[in-house]
Write a structure and sequence with these properties.
Number of helices of chain A: 20
Number of strands of chain A: 10
Oligomer: homodimer
CATH architecture of the largest domain in chain A: 3-Layer(aba) Sandwich
Structural class of chain A: alpha/beta
CATH class of the largest domain in chain A: Alpha Beta
Helix content of chain A: 40-55%
Largest sheet of chain A: 5 strands, parallel
CATH topology of the largest domain in chain A: Rossmann fold
Largest interface: A-B, 45 and 44 residues
Chain lengths: ~475, ~475
């Protein structure tokens, strides 16, 4: 077929472009977030395919991301951060012009990634894609194919013209030079990530109009299918190595106390050690994530404060996690944690965490049963991504008994300057103590992975809990420094 | 006085640290946002002063920013962006370890800024600081002074020890080498920015404990003063050159029409031109900001769409502006626009803008009279910062008459697929047409600056308005390309 023969008439083109543009209303009504991933060989026409499909779309509802250049900030975050951060909210479309496939394959072929790192990344990607779909995203993946000769011709054509010369990168030329290697790697990647719920759409990209038609109509069909038949997520078997857990009741709180004198002495020593270690992880660029969960009035705030006091304020951040904002609710529930990750060498302390999903959101019915049951595995996967990246992940459950909580609530109620710390909601939650205890036990049991285990802080005596927390953080950092990964 | 003599007792130190920490409750209750700026000579002890004052603070309520390294993203935004972006919300404290003073003085002395650029920056800073205070922020500025010999000694001490060596930068050594020059420049800067509402606190930094005491007690006193006597902002005289405006009624809408044929032809030509110009501004790194305001149903969406169609999606972004989120309401009202600025070479299109302050927020009573009256000047200052940075700022008012609005509302009401576009609020706003018209006339009159003038788009015929908008954008870009700044 001659290249300039009209295989797609103007009327036909107008039609499929308009059909897709009309789907924006469907997306909006169905509160569907859409991710379109356009991958493919250099010069296969990714950019022009995108330009074409968005032609009739209302620019307020989509965003195109070119992912070529990794910013300094992105380079200091986990591999998937830059994509996770750009996830669209419900009713919006994010189009990635090249994405996690290109970055992974290029990294592997160029030697920047070892075989093992490559495989880890592929696993992360499979999980990430499944999580997107399971959490209500429509994900449409395209791979645009051309052959070696055609690529060479196109790159040559671009490089020859003054106005398009800048569009040919070193990477493009490199890809053509090692075309067979790249082809093999692309195929391997596609095979590894062509899953039932996130299949690839591979398109021969010889003819621009046909590419455009295929891309537009595939997205249109995807939207229609998802809007009429929402995806039902399946629960995954737990694939992660676990540490056994025998329930909160197995922790004796009575004898876990420190005298004022012991406390002062230990605090001073621990803070001194921690300050030194902070300096070391900063220089070695090790990220640390400390997650606090626990009963109301268990003493999370004071515990966090004692750790923070030891740290250089330029190298850590504390995130108090309240109920999600509208922007946050409209996205994957882990999005607000992805976007709060520390840079390498920094410490992020979370005062309440992603585990809200399987506690308050579960018990108050803010998410479906399928949602919270699935979340155990999703959070394990999330934490695995973090530890694979090199992070030390420390999870604390701050434990008190019911009587101690009552005493502290009453004290707050009766002390004017503490009254802001106690709300009606705290009393309501207290009534559900047993339900929460059940949920917490299940949570710890199912997320007590070897790479990110829980630590129970006995906090009937807050001083004891503070010192225990610091010692755990110190030990975790020292172990890592002794055994770098 | 000997250096290691205890000029401040431990009890005293505990006292002023605790006093400051206690103020976090005051800040929270008064919904006060606090900015602390710690400037000073290298090695004057900025870091240790900060470490000390935050010692007892709850880490969930403050954040320390080290501003040394300008990120790639920040380098492509206006000078003040990186500070504006980090503004705390109500009840929070942001502490800048070095800030806009150091960046400006260093830029000037090192020759990176010309005299004229330096002076522009100083003007911006004066305005920025005043705006912060006028908009309810407590701003406390410190300058820590040491002399040449002392600095040399301290830098030498740091450089000699293995663990502190990395803390001495080239800039620090440079500053000591050209100490007198820097001293002169610091003094000039202080003089130029030591205003009645944002005064400097200059502190002799020979003794660490005294610095700490002065800093802590000054912040404490500042919080108490502001919490008990809120600042009342004064209205500024307009200092900007203006273009005359004769009211919306002076625009005749009747004869501003295009035939379908004229429209198609013009649209094609304009989009082609615009696509080329987009490429050019991208390469020349010129940022463009297009702001749309107008009556409900005036045709803003369709107008924006025709411009966006012509653009490379990787180089522009459209921001639909609805009512502010909780995070946004808790900050300076321009914060949500500062954080949405385009990178240099990109285009940002705002579908509704910061002018909401003097329209809906004024008329619905969402801000005080002082707030909206002050806003004209504040928005002119904001836009001046943008044009000084090099941005092309284009402001559109999309104009229709009352009958046309009624016809369009009715059409939306009666057409199922358009019903989402019309709400009760639209009808309520329509009842206040005359009030709005008065507010719009005043707004345009007071913000019609020569550097960011308004353009009225007669949109009874949407086709006419679209072409007019595109031609204005084309002309503005062409003029800039012909006359680079």
């Amino acid at each position: 077929m001659a290249k300039d023969q009209k295989v797609v008439t103007k009327a036909e083109k107008d039609h499929f472009r308009a059909e897709l543009a009309n789907r924006q209303q469907v997306i909006k009504n169905a509160k569907l977030p859409v991710v379109v991933l356009i991958e493919g060989y250099s010069a296969a026409g990714k950019g022009s395919a995108i330009g074409s499909i968005i032609h009739y779309m209302d620019p307020r509802f989509f965003k195109v991301y070119n992912m070529d250049v990794v910013s300094e900030d992105e380079a200091r975050k986990p591999f998937l951060y830059r994509y996770a951060q750009k996830l669209p909210k419900q009713g919006q479309i994010a189009i990635f012009d090249g994405g996690w496939m290109d970055a992974t394959v290029h990294g592997y072929v160029s030697g920047a990634l070892t075989k093992k790192e490559y495989e880890k990344q592929v696993t992360s990607i499979r999980q990430f894609e499944r999580q997107l779909v399971d959490n209500g995203y429509l994900l449409v993946k395209f791979f645009l194919e051309i052959d070696e000769e055609e690529q060479k011709k196109r790159l040559g054509g671009l490089a020859d013209r003054k106005n398009t010369k800048y569009r040919v990168s070193d990477y493009d030329m490199e890809q053509n030079k090692h075309f067979k290697e790249y082809r093999k790697a692309f195929r391997e990647f596609i095979k590894a990530t062509d899953t039932g719920i996130c299949p690839w759409n591979c398109i021969r990209a010889d003819h621009r109009d046909l590419v455009e038609k295929k891309v537009a109509s595939t997205i249109t069909a995807g939207i229609d299918a998802m809007a009429s038949h929402p995806h039902v997520a399946e629960l995954q078997e737990n694939p992660f190595p676990m540490v056994e857990f025998h329930g909160l009741s197995s922790y004796d709180l009575t004898d876990k106390v420190l005298s004022d004198e012991e406390y002062r002495k230990e605090l001073k020593e621990c803070q001194k050690k921690l300050a030194k270690l902070h300096n070391k992880i900063y220089r070695k660029k090790i990220p640390v994530i400390i997650a606090y969960e626990g009963w109301d009035a268990a003493g999370k705030g004071g515990n966090i404060k004692r750790i923070a006091q030891a740290l250089d304020p330029r190298g850590y951040e504390v995130f108090p996690i309240a109920s999600p904002s509208t922007e946050e609710k409209a996205r994957h529930y882990l999005w607000r944690f992805w976007t709060r990750l520390p840079r390498s060498g920094h410490i992020a302390i979370f005062d309440r965490t992603w585990y809200g999903r399987v506690m308050v959101e579960r018990l108050e019915g803010f998410c479906s049963e399928n949602d919270w049951k699935r979340a155990y595995n999703e959070m394990n996967e999330f934490e695995r991504d973090l530890t694979d990246w090199g992070a030390i992940v420390i999870k604390f459950w701050v434990q008190i008994d019911k009587d101690t909580q009552l005493a502290r609530f009453t004290d707050r109620q009766n002390t004017p300057e503490k009254q802001w710390k106690i709300t009606e909601e705290d009393w309501r939650n207290r009534e559900k103590w047993d339900l929460y205890e059940g949920a917490v036990n299940e949570m710890i049991e199912k997320t007590n992975t070897t790479f990110a285990p829980w630590h129970i802080l006995e906090s009937n005596d807050k001083k004891y809990a503070r010192i225990k927390a610091m010692k755990i953080v110190i030990q975790a950092i020292e172990e890592r420094l002794a055994n770098p990964i």
